Amino acid sequence: MDYHADRFRDASLLVRDDGRLVALLPANREGETLWSHQGLTFGGVIAHTELTVRRALGVFDAIIARARNDGTARLVYKAVPHIYQRIPSDEDLYALFHHDARLIRRDLSAAIRLDERLPYRKGRRAALKRAKSSDLRVAPSRDFEAFMALEEQTLARHGAIPTHTGAELALLAGRYPDRIRLHVALARNEEAVAGVVTYETPVVVHVQYIGATDEGRSRGAVDLLLDHAIDDAARARRRWFEFGISTTEGGRSLNEGLARNKESYGARAVVFDWYEVEL
User: Fold this and answer.
1) Whole-angstrom distance, CA of residue 114 vs CA of residue 239
2) Which of 25, 131, 158, 276 is least surrounded, with the fewest CB atoms within 10 Å of its CB?
3) Half-sphere exposure of 102 toward its Cβ, with a 13 Å CA cutoff?
4) Inside any domain, residue 216
5) Along the 279 residues of the chain, how does pLDDT read in single tens digits?
6) Which domain holds residue 129?
């Protein structure tokens, strides 16, 4: 997270039991609020597989006691969605319940369970068939700055801007070349007409950015890229392929068209929850 450390007042915590590190909480402080880090889409307590319910209750007691001692008025906690967990790990949610946490935000994403894939919808299959019969070619790329320039144009149509600049994404991809990947669809003249950036964990492949030129959209280049990425994730024995959030306004407003688009690939809903504990 250090590439944007200047934007946040770090307040991350280490939790020890008799001197032994048992958990940590990436966090920042803003005014009287302690956030499980605002620079992360999600990210609650990180712990070893030995974190049992009993120990988790102790971890949260310690975090909340420290927060109160620091003059914190509230804790905002962004839970790790279940698809990102290697094993069941909802001990933190139970501990939050013990501290009277309330759900304050629920964003909606969509994911494909790769070992139980649902079929693409009819229209998606037809578009993909057309794209595969064209002269488009999928290839890996490291030109993140050129892609992000294309992404800025794509998002501008929806009144949005990317979270990362081209330089930031190139920096991150350089640090994690096996975890952050860019694949592009090339036309016959070797010009990139679309691209997809994925972030990968041992269990999830997450789509971070999708961009396409007018030509790429008309030729189904995004369908070709996403189909390639989904197949590649399945071959790599990842468990989930996740498309990202389709909600705004704290989760209250659903972009139904965007959600339907993801569902047409066989994805189904996954929630990203935020909790608040008044201290």
Assistant:
1) 6
2) 158
3) 4
4) yes
5) 776 778 899 999 999 999 999 999 999 999 999 999 988 888 899 998 889 999 999 999 999 999 999 999 999 999 999 999 999 999 999 999 999 999 999 999 999 999 999 999 999 999 999 999 999 999 999 999 999 999 988 888 877 888 888 999 999 999 999 999 999 999 999 999 999 999 999 999 999 999 999 999 999 999 999 999 999 999 999 999 999 999 999 999 999 999 999 999 999 999 999 999 999
6) 115-238
- CA 35 to chain CA centroid, Å, is 18
CA distance 61 to 201: 30
CATH code of the domain containing 193: 3.40.630.30
pTM (predicted TM-score):
0.93
Structural domain includes residue 260 = no
Same domain, 157 and 96: no
77 and 18 fall within a common domain: yes
Query: How many domains does the chain contain in total?
Result: 2
